[in-house]
Write a structure and sequence with these properties.
Elements lengths: L16 H41 L16 H12 L3 H4 L18 E2 L2 H13 L8 E4 L4 E7 L22 E7 L1 E5 L2 E3 H5 L5 H23 L14 E3 L8 E5 L10 H9 L2 H4 L3 E4 L1 H7 L11 E2 L9 E2 L2 E5 L11 E6 L1 H4 E5 L4 E5 L6 E14 L5 E5 L4
Parallel strand pairs: 2-14, 7-8, 8-17, 9-12
Antiparallel strand pairs: 1-15, 3-4, 5-16, 6-16, 9-13, 10-11, 11-12, 13-17, 14-16, 15-16
Helix pairs in contact: 4-6
């Protein structure tokens, strides 16, 4: 607020007009300086209060969990440069978090793909209609997998208060070794396509690798001969289920060479499996066999086959889910075209998690080859958990 000061001349008289103007200007200047100082003080106090409030309400942001948020991940950018142009300088300078065996550069050549591409391949393999969907899948870091299986029951006995307790039997364990084999694929693309910035090279590479891996895996897991690939389910030793012994898969005959007959053999197949395995059992067959089986009816004319009620649900045969795997053999004389069992217990797939890619721009000019490889193995780990239907008279 401006205050007007009354000023008199030195002789006590009134000031001249010029002196009055000078006095008024001096008063105004003094009041303006005081006003500015007051405003500055208030603004400074307000700024200090806001700063203190910000500090109290500040919460450090948690790092994003999804890899997709970090679009500039060093590994992904370096891998993209390697695939497009062969520039591996960035990849050589990167190490993944984890154990030493997770180095980007492999001693056998090639580079680990970026995590997003690797996960895409894994998800496609899991969603593919194959025995992988119902088998036990184990990830390891060694060159083989040993499974210990209890092939006998622990002894038990009754005892009273005074009688001595008799010694009971001890369980017998079988060691089953599943070696890893190298599974490879070699998709190719033209250099011109790779030079196109709009081309999603990671998705393309993941799609091609997953497609080739899925087809090779499905065949090896079921009919592999064991030479450079796993021993397939159907290449294990078989014996009539009435004479079954550990180390073989039991078979149930249909009673008709190359046919199902009345279909009673399917019921026999179900009940040839132990009760503790039936709870989680699944039928496995190909489409042609499924077309024959779904025609079977009971004595009242009702189909034994029922389609899945909801989307994505499997069909059922005698109340058990059916997995359609196209690498199962067609119906023929003596064929083992239907498998039934608890595959989560009886069949194990073993794999190393890393996927390697080696770029070859020379062998197929003007195209660029990508040699992708991973290590995988499979085998039967419980011979009592799986039974086979044999299309023969005996």
């Amino acid at each position: 607020m401006m205050v007007k000061t009354e000023v008199k001349a030195a002789d006590g008289g009134d000031l001249s007009p010029i002196q009055e103007v000078k006095s008024a200007v001096a008063d105004f200047t003094r009041d303006l300086k005081e006003f500015r100082a007051d405003i500055h003080t208030r603004l400074q106090q307000q700024e200090e209060r806001l700063t203190m409030l910000d500090r109290k309400s500040f919460a450090p942001a948690r790092p994003a969990l999804a890899r997709s948020v970090d679009e500039g991940a060093p590994h992904q950018k370096a891998f993209d440069a390697y695939v497009r142009s062969g520039d591996d300088d960035a990849l050589r300078g990167i190490e993944l978090e984890g154990k030493a065996m997770h180095q980007i550069t492999g001693a056998d050549g090639g580079y680990l793909v970026d995590p997003q591409t690797s996960e895409t391949v894994s998800s496609v393999l899991k969603s593919t209609v194959s025995i992988r969907q119902v088998a036990n899948v184990v990830h390891i870091e060694s060159s083989s997998y040993d499974a210990l299986v209890d092939t006998s029951d622990v002894g038990a006995g009754w005892a009273d208060e005074t009688s001595p307790t008799a010694e009971t039997g001890t369980p017998v364990f079988e060691r089953i070794n599943i070696p890893l084999h190298e599974l490879s694929a070699m998709p190719k693309a033209s250099q011109r396509l790779l030079d196109d910035a709009a081309f999603d090279v990671e998705s393309w590479l993941a799609e091609r690798i997953a497609d080739k891996f899925a087809r090779a895996e499905n065949a090896a897991f079921l009919v592999g001969d064991g030479f450079g690939k796993p021993v397939g389910l159907l290449n294990n030793a078989t014996v009539d289920n009435d004479s079954w012994a550990w180390g073989t898969l039991g078979t149930v005959p249909t009673g008709v060479d190359g046919g199902l007959g009345s279909g009673d053999a399917v019921i026999d197949l179900v009940y040839s499996l132990g009760a503790r395995y039936r709870a989680n059992a699944t039928f496995v067959m190909n489409s042609k066999t499924a077309g024959e089986v779904r025609k079977l009816k009971d004595q009242d004319g009702r189909f034994l086959w029922t389609d899945g009620i909801g989307a994505g649900e499997p069909a059922h045969l005698l109340g058990y889910p059916v997995l359609v795997a196209e690498d199962m053999p067609d119906v023929a004389i003596g064929s083992l075209s239907i498998a039934f069992g608890d595959f989560g217990t009886g069949f194990t797939i073993v794999e190393r998690p890393e996927l390697r890619v080696l770029r070859d721009p020379f062998s197929a000019k003007p195209n660029v080859l990508f040699y992708a490889s991973k290590r995988v193995g499979a085998g039967v780990t419980d011979y009592a958990a799986i039974k086979l239907l044999k299309f023969s008279a005996s």
